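#struct-help
A.M.: can someone run this one for me? Single chain, 274 residues.
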Amino acid sequence: MKKMNGRILTLILFVFAVVFLAGITIAGSVFAEDAMVVDFARKNLSPCGEYIFGTDWMGRDMFLRTLTGLSMSIKIGLLAAGVSSIIAFVLGTMAATMGKRVDSVITWIIDLVMGIPHILLLILISYAFGKGFKGVVIGVALTHWTSLARLIRSEVLQLKEATYIKVAEKLGKSKFEIAVKHMVPHLLPQFLVGLILLFPHAILHEASITFLGFGLSPEQPAIGIILEESMAHLAMGRWWLAVFPGLLLVFTVVLFDVAGESLRKLLDPASAHK
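D.P.: on it. Structure tokens below:
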């Protein structure tokens, strides 16, 4: 009974995280135009019943702006993490299956990318591709694949030495058939968990470089823009301009982590009861 309760609790956490994140993404898209409405008659209002996150110096609803900014961040995270995970899967598999020379080259590239400070490399790539949405997505995608690639490489190397893989080879099964029937089902859970756990890194780094001025343009309602603009008003006591968007950003990142860990436990039932 306790084991079943542990699994049910894990499933509930996963569903809650997914539904909440999907809700933020959809709500941000629906209220995108409302978030841009300017009304100087209601500027600099502190949090109240009508405006739970208050309003900024242009009278814009900070709750709607925050939802729209997080929605943008999640979309960027989805696209960038998807591309990054595919790069990781392809290069990790190539490193493990195409001989020592290819393995050495790919391992060297992984070490090179991981040896450069993440935020610095991300800024350079984003700037090189013209910043904005395209620059951020390409920058995040090209800097977040290394850890997952190492994991995929390690898993494939272990699988190659597994008894059932060697038996399949002795029975004359083709490499493609072995890969599809025996390797992919084993790698898929690791890949999915790694994909989800890329999201919080992608979102935080998108917000970071946008805050520093190397990401999304000021016209876009991004979390990084909201936090950067709020810095000039904190000294005037308008704390809500930074606190609430920052807290919701942290909560969103934590939910992605919860979703990833819950999925890992669901795919590995034994770990759900520890």
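A.M.: thanks! The radius of gyration is 22 Å.
D.P.: also worth noting: The CA atoms of residues 83 and 141 lie 6 Å apart.
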